[in-house]
């Protein structure tokens, strides 16, 4: 069962993995407040895709079924799931596939 | 005027035809660490200018600009084959990383390029190779609908050693059902501020 802590940990690990590929002086602070995409965000769209792919894979493995993060549901959210760690964590937890 | 000779406009970026005057800025991008997975190119501005001037008419070589005109990267559609209706996207490089943080520059640039390929040129397939160790780009292309079609062993000599190349391809049907919705989702995410 994926709870808030487990999903947040998956998101944070995806960000740390991304950071590991960056030069030391190009790394960003990873934490629950990290902004992902949009104004004042640390990531560009290639980075965001890397995070989405890693989170999809980890959540799918943990849930035992395929979970997609960029379908019509994501686009219809009032607040984008990709604004920050908290929004992405909340969005993953809201998916009926994980119920 | 061919499609490669006009500006392709998007919401966040535009693709402007590459010109000789872009030699200095594009050379700077090509010599940065982030371009280490591209083939070795020109070493001087003069060589880069010569390379740009020598692009064949059939190439669609673009500078990616923000809508305020700042150049942030480059991308091309080459090897356009109107008989077999295929081409090769490539030379994809975001050179100004800070300028595009939080901006869907890469994804919208690809959407404009794929729009040129599939909607204007009526191609049915785009394909190319990516250095196997360029994991972020391989991940990116697969997320946007490309499928791995093969692997060329020790195909590229980069950074003083050989590495494999991953062959990736995208069909127009997958572009419409997978690529476009995912691109639109990423672009929509950037509107949420």
Kindly summarize this structure in a few lines.
The complex is a heterodimer of chains A (99) and B (193). Chain A is mainly α and 99 residues long.
What about the largest sheet of chain B? 8 strands, mixed
State the fourth-level CATH superfamily of chain B: Gcn5-related N-acetyltransferase (GNAT)
Specify the number of helices of chain A. Answer: 4
Architecture of chain B in CATH?
3-Layer(aba) Sandwich
The overall pLDDT of chain A, averaged over residues, is 88
Please name the fourth-level CATH homologous superfamily of chain A. Answer: ACP-like
By CATH reckoning, the class of chain A would read Mainly Alpha
User: What count of domains describes the coordinates of chain A?
Assistant: 1
Number of strands of chain B: 8
Topology order of chain B in helix (H) and strand (E) letters: EEHHEEEHEHEEH
Segments of chain B where pLDDT lies below 50 for 5+ residues?
A: none
Radius of gyration of chain A: 13 Å
Largest interface: A-B, 30 and 31 residues
Q: Assign the CATH class of chain B.
A: Alpha Beta
Q: How much strand content do the residues of chain A show?
A: under 5%
Q: What amount of the residues of chain B lies in strands? A: 25-35%
Record the SSE blueprint.
The complex is a heterodimer of chains A (99) and B (193).
Chain A: H1 4-20, H2 45-63, H3 72-75, H4 85-94
Helix pairs in contact in A: 1-2, 1-4
Chain B: E1 8-9, E2 13-17, H1 23-30, H2 45-53, E3 60-66, E4 71-81, E5 86-94, H3 105-120, E6 125-131, H4 135-143, E7 147-158, E8 161-171, H5 172-191
Protein name (chain A): Acyl carrier protein
Protein name (chain B): GNAT family N-acetyltransferase
GO molecular function (chain B): protein N-terminal-serine acetyltransferase activity; protein-N-terminal-alanine acetyltransferase activity
